[in-house]
Amino acid sequence: MSTTPQGYHSVTPSLTVRDGAAALDFYVRAFGAVEVFRMPEPSGKIMHAEFTIGDSRIMISDEYPDYGAIAPELGKGGSFMIYVTDVDAAFEQAVAAGATAVQPPTDMFWGDRSGKLNDPFGYRWTLASHVRDVSQEDMEAAAKTWAEGNNE
Questions:
Q1: What is the distance between the alpha carbons of residues 126 and 103, in angstroms, rounded to a whole number?
Q2: Can you say whether the dihedral through the CA atoms of 128, 105, 108, 149 is positive or negative?
Q3: What's the pLDDT tens digit per position in 32-58?
Q4: Boundaries of each VOC domain copy (predicted)?
């Protein structure tokens, strides 16, 4: 018997938000999330829910300050990365759903094309598509060049 339930991985993120129902709707529209289940209170507040993006499961709940569950300030929550087939289309979909563009999709020296967004609930998201393989040596050289150019 596995100690990890089927459908889960070793690490499962759990988000705390100010409006769980709205956040679930946003993640469906922005990232193509699939809601697995939700446990609302009679008031509609989300005690616990789970959704998937790709093969990854994420837990979510509304704030419960008395229990230490407090949503982050906008842009100050955790950061997530999602690999997608078409980063440009996925980025536009997320923006259309209400995400704030931070960095438009750009070809990066490590071989990904990626863009960064903030969601309306305090979390940051990087969307990426791997477009080319880069050797460790080439990546280290490019990183050094990039760092030197950004420290001036």
A1: 9
A2: negative
A3: 999 999 999 999 999 999 999 999 999
A4: 7-130
> How many other C-beta atoms are found inside a 10 Å radius of the C-beta of residue 22?
15
How far is 94 from 82, CA to CA, in rounded Å?
A: 12
Strand-strand pairing, 34-40 and 112-118: unpaired
Q: Give dist(CA 143, CA 107) in Å, integer.
A: 14
Q: Give the confidence band of 83 by pLDDT, cuts at 50, 70, 90.
A: very high
Q: Which residues of 25-43 are buried (b: 16+ CB within 10 A; e: fewer)?
A: ebbeebbebeeeebeeeee
Q: Residue for token digits 């094309």? A: 113
